[in-house]
Amino acid sequence: MAYPPALPSELVEEFVSQAHSDLKRVKELLEQQPALLNAGWDWGAGDWETGLGAAAHMGRADIAQYLLERGARMDIFAAAMLGYLEVVKAILAADPAARIAPGPHGIPLIAHAQAGGEAAAAVLAFLQVEVLPG
Predict the structure, then answer these.
(1) I need a labelling partner for 59 at 20 to 30 A (CA). Which of 21, 77, 95, 124 fits?
(2) How confident is the model over 26-45, as a mean pLDDT?
(3) Is residue 4 part of a domain?
């Protein structure tokens, strides 16, 4: 199977970096290169992050929704930030170890729900009961 050439690393790094905070630039970059949608950047030591992952831990629901509408792959961290309780429950039912799996930069699942604010309040409440020991 032949694969297309790799994306320029500088472009992937910029896309993921901008997905932390700049919807306008994310749109420009994605229009320029649609393959960035699910591209991941390695910050080092296996700390991989996609644009969706960046938006998720920053609480940027606008950026996350934009990427999802264009076909980004949903993950438990984005689901937690967006308040998608049933998605979080389904993933944890299928993969209980996801409770403790670190997200990008080692940020825990519950912090993603906290970043979601009021929209993620039900997810946060669920995780506080179901994930935290004690």
Answers:
(1) 95
(2) 97
(3) no
